[in-house]
């Protein structure tokens, strides 16, 4: 910027901070000022920012345009955005991709009986002879199975009684995930304290019990 009686003083054209916040001001030399007829130049907002009134504000790419995979979701950041794994997916450090978490295999699902892994989540279901109470997410033994268990003198299983695999008549006691049926009395459950689900309240064998990790 030029000043003085003879326009022979070079002042800092940026001294009064004429540019909006977030941009840079460049002072013109006297020659440049004469040539361009301006005393300073303001830079554009940095990449990822846009001018909004008197300030550069972050662009929310997640609302506009972003490039994430099916298993990722967009997370806005200042000046950019990043793709993070969706709920139910976990970053695989080797492949650098988000892979589905197998909640059934990792024992983090809260299924009472059967667990089926799916992309991003899992589903729970019941053994044959049980009806899912979808409201409570509990498996309720039906009356015909209950009668068959009673006929087989298995009405006092520690957890409950079910049909054996591939059978609609033979029944057996079973235990919650993480526990094994005692190999001698076939009714009690032995837990090793590992891979035990934390169920909260569960209703098996018409008895409401509070099952917490490490207990049954
Ligand atoms: Ca952004
Ligand atoms: Ca899953």
UniProtKB/TrEMBL annotation:
<dbReference type="InterPro" id="IPR050751">
    <property type="entry name" value="ECM_structural_protein"/>
</dbReference>
<dbReference type="Pfam" id="PF07645">
    <property type="entry name" value="EGF_CA"/>
</dbReference>
<keyword id="KW-0325">Glycoprotein</keyword>
<feature type="domain" description="EGF-like">
    <location>
        <begin position="58"/>
        <end position="95"/>
    </location>
</feature>
<keyword id="KW-0245">EGF-like domain</keyword>
<keyword id="KW-0677">Repeat</keyword>
<dbReference type="GO" id="GO:0005509">
    <property type="term" value="F:calcium ion binding"/>
</dbReference>
<keyword id="KW-0732">Signal</keyword>
<dbReference type="InterPro" id="IPR018097">
    <property type="entry name" value="EGF_Ca-bd_CS"/>
</dbReference>
<dbReference type="InterPro" id="IPR000152">
    <property type="entry name" value="EGF-type_Asp/Asn_hydroxyl_site"/>
</dbReference>
<keyword id="KW-1015">Disulfide bond</keyword>
<dbReference type="InterPro" id="IPR049883">
    <property type="entry name" value="NOTCH1_EGF-like"/>
</dbReference>
<dbReference type="InterPro" id="IPR000742">
    <property type="entry name" value="EGF"/>
</dbReference>
<dbReference type="InterPro" id="IPR001881">
    <property type="entry name" value="EGF-like_Ca-bd_dom"/>
</dbReference>
<protein>
    <recommendedName>
        <fullName>EGF-like domain-containing protein</fullName>
    </recommendedName>
</protein>
<dbReference type="InterPro" id="IPR009030">
    <property type="entry name" value="Growth_fac_rcpt_cys_sf"/>
</dbReference>
